[in-house]
Amino acid sequence: MKKPITEISAPLVSWYQQHERSFPWREDPSPYRVWVSEIMLQQTRIEAALPYFERFMQTLPTVADLAAAPEDVLLKLWEGLGYYSRVRNLQKAAQMVMRDFGGELPDKYEQLLTLPGIGEYTAGAIASIAFGKRAAAVDGNVLRVMARLTDDATDVMQPQNRKRVTALVQSIVPEQHAGDFNQGIMELGETVCLPNAQPRCSECPLFDYCAVAGLERARDLPTRTKPKQRRVEHRTVFIVVIDDKVLLHRRPQKGLLGGMWELPNVESDHAEDALSQWGVEAVDTTLLPNGKHVFSHVEWHMEGRLVKAKRLTLQPEFQLVSKEELAGYALPTAFRTYSDILKEDVL
Questions:
Q1: Which end of the chain is more exposed for a tag (fewer CB within 10 A), N or C?
Q2: Phi, psi of 283 (to 5 degrees)
Q3: Given the residues 7, 38, 187, 233, the one annotated as active site
Q4: Whether pTM exceeds 0.90
C-alpha cells in the first residue's frame, strides 16, 4: 500500500539536499539573483541560461543597477533568450522596487505578485527560496511529478486543474526548508521524473508514495491539450548595405518583438515594392539562404536578400550602423540566419 502523499516533504527535502546540482543562484540565493534566474529559466534550459545569468549579474549586480540600465544595454544582455517583454517587465519591476519598497524585493508572496512579470509561480519561488516562506511554486516539472504521484489524468493546461494542484502542493510545503522542498520537486522533475520519457522510478525518493511508480502509463502523464496549430508567415528579410554600413529598422513598440531593432523585412508578397518604399536605390541583389523561426503562435518562413545600395533616403524608424556599432544592438534570435551572415565580410 502506498504511503500518503501528504508525507512526501521529509524524504524529498533529504534527497534534494544530497543531490542538488550546483548553480550560481543556489550558491548565493539572494532575492535579486533568485528573481533574475527564475525569469531567465521560464523558457530556457538551465545550461543555456548560465552564461546569460553570469553576464547579467556582472553588468547589473543590484536591483538599482537594473532599474537604471539603458534599454539598449538591457536588451543586449537578453539577446538570444527571446521573450524580450520579460526583461522589460524585469526592469519595470526593479523601478517599482526602488520606488515602493526601498530598493529591496518584498518578502511577502502577495506583494511580490504586484510586481510586473511576477506571477504565482515566480512569487512562490522567490518567497520560498530567497526568504524561506511557506509558498508553493508550481511549474511544468511540478505539474508532471504531481500528476504521476496521484495518477491524475486531467488536463494540466486547464486553469482549474492547475489551481487544484497548486492548492495540494501548498498544503504539503513544510514550514521549514520550504525552498528546498520546491527546488527538490523541480529537480526531481528535471532529473528523475522525466518529461516525455519513462521516469527513472528506481531512483526516485518518492517511489513508495507514487501511484504509478514502475508502471508503463507513468510516461503518459501528465495529460495536455494539444496546442493550436501555429500560423505560418512567409517573409523576406533584407540585408541592405551602403557605404560599409547596414540598415536596421526599429519595430513598433507594441506587438511582436515590440521596440526591437531588426533587419528590415516584409511579408514576401510585398517584397518587390519594399525597397522603393524605404527609399533604397539598389545596385545589386543577391539571394541568401532561407531561414525559419518559431514563435509561440506564429512561424516565420524567411527568404533573404543581400542588397548593395548606392542611395538611401533615411526614414525615422531606420538607422545605418557600422560593423563595429552593430555589436551594440540586440537583434532578435529570429534573424540569426542573417545576423550570422553579417559576421562575415559583407560590410
A1: N
A2: -105, -40
A3: 38
A4: no
